[in-house]
Amino acid sequence: MGEGILSLEPVVGAALGDPGALLRDAGLERAGDALRIGGIAIDAIAADVGTPSYLYHAGAIRQRFQALGDAFAGRRIKIHYAVKANANLAILRLFRDMGAGADIVSGGELARARAAGFPNSDIVFSGVGKTTVELAEAIEAGIGSINIESAEELDVIERLVEGRSVTAPVRLGLRVNPGVGAETHPYIATGVSGIKFGIPVELVTALGQRISVNPRLRLVTLAVHLGSQLLDPEPIAQGAAVLADLVQALRGRGIRTIEALDVGGGLGIRYRDETPLDPVALATALAPHADRSGLALHLEPGRYLVGSAGVLVTKVLYRKSSGGKRFVVVDAGMNDLVRPSHYQAYHAIVETRRSPRGTIVADVVGPVCETGDFLALDRLVPDVQPGENLAILGAGAYGFVMASNYNTRPRPAEVLVDRGRYALIRPRETVAQLMAGEVVEPFARETPS
Ligand SMILES: *Cc1c(COP(=O)(O)O)cnc(C)c1O
After folding, report:
1. What are the tens digits of pLDDT across the range 375-408?
2. Predicted pLDDT of residue 279
3. Nearest CA to ligand 1 atom 1
4. Cβ pair 237, 292 in contact under 8 A
5. Which parts of the chain sit beneath pLDDT 70?
6. Residue among 188, 225, 261 to mutate when testing ligand 1 (max atoms within 8 A of CB)
């Protein structure tokens, strides 16, 4: 759940608004003809680790985290990085080392967050469909907050804590559906009513009271998450206003355990020519609601922290023309980066080595047997030749994590670039790994009856 971008494919041949800004967001620069990431030529890394590969720039990630923290300087704020955006352990460790917490949406992500070394108390568990086993694990770990999304989920938690000691109550949040619409792709708008996320406002106080009368439970946050790729802070502020009102209502009923307003993630980035969400504007918009409630703020950004900091490097395999259209066939497909075909998302594509050949208008397509297997449609792209590489920008969030093995394609390698060095943080999958566990003749040993 929770990603994507609204921009549909542009008018035919539309060029980038400001390619310089996109390159800067990613920590990319051109040195001579070579495109470099963190000072290293992308082609050199590609020659070493192969293609397609995801490259992440640690410096660009740190910069985003710092910018967000600086915008809220002087306020009580905790940033929980949304693990689902990019769950590689090395990326998680980077965030842990900067003092971030982790926002998780599954038991698998709980295991990752703990493997990366996040203290349990810095982990927040969101999600509309947590299983009993996942909830039991989170309770056992004593995580910072389990954000409940329904009365039925609270039923399960109440059963799980029966008989437990009351000295360490399980810390809970209520994920509220504030009924606030956010302008984004319909798959990723999560704060409007009539969708699966969150608890309707009118049920919040009743659930808050149920929690407060149980000595084994403690209500510590109210949370919203309005959607993804939001460029305007206003809807997030509206969500915070709803939370602050609810805090007042709960206090009116004697509930004074709430520690923070969790305003979720969804901070938008530049994929083409958008103005990214400005963290200072966000801080300004949230301040009155934090002040009114007297509570700390929690943020759960994923995309904002990692999206711009990653590129997918892919090699050109063929060029062809058909039906009056031109195609650039590359070795990355929809299984490697699904956002273009799933959300009609726009990803800028640049050459890794400047060529004198100019540009063409073409569809950039992958090898997967689907007409929907494209990375760009009717796009002005460099006039690349087979064997040359392209860098797909903005691939740091919801890239590798959404990759699949469709067509029995091993998932790409992942590489972290930091301080003039690079390291493989996940080797390319092998076909043998993909077949592991499969049974060719499941009934071979059965005797016929
Ligand atoms: C997906 C999600 C996030 C992160 O969303 P981004 O758009 O990547 O910032 C934060 N909180 C919750 C509850 C989510 O589901």
Report:
1. 999 999 999 999 999 999 999 999 999 999 999 9
2. 98
3. 2
4. no
5. 1-18, 181-195, 446-449
6. 225
Rounded CA-CA distance 340/145 in Å is: 34
Q: In which residue are the tokens 């209500």 written?
A: 219
What residue ranges define each of the domains in the chain, with the CATH number in brackets? Answer: 12-57+307-435 (2.40.37.10), 58-306 (3.20.20.10)
Q: Is the dihedral angle over the CA atoms 25, 31, 34, 36 positive or is it negative?
A: negative
Q: Which is catalytic among the residues 11, 73, 133, 369?
A: 369
* Two structure tokens written together for 198: 């969150």
Average predicted confidence (pLDDT) for the chain: 93
Alpha-carbon span 82 to 217, nearest angstrom: 24
* pTM for the structure as a whole: 0.94
**Beta strands at 296-299 and 77-82: parallel, antiparallel or unpaired:** parallel
Q: Which atom of ligand 1 is nearest to the CA of 84?
A: 1
- Closest by CA to 230, choosing from 1, 3, 63, is 3
Nearest CA to ligand 1 atom 10: 265
With a Cβ cut-off of 6 Å, ligand 1 is lined by 1-3, 82, 84-85, 103, 105, 126, 225, 228, 264-267, 300-304, 397
Catalytic: 369? yes
Cα of 432 from ligand 1 centre, angstroms: 34
pLDDT digits (tens, 9 = 90+) for 269-326: 999 999 999 999 999 999 999 999 999 999 999 999 999 999 999 999 999 999 999 9
Find the radius of gyration of the CA atoms of the chain: 23
- Residue 81 CA to residue 256 CA, distance in Å, equals 27
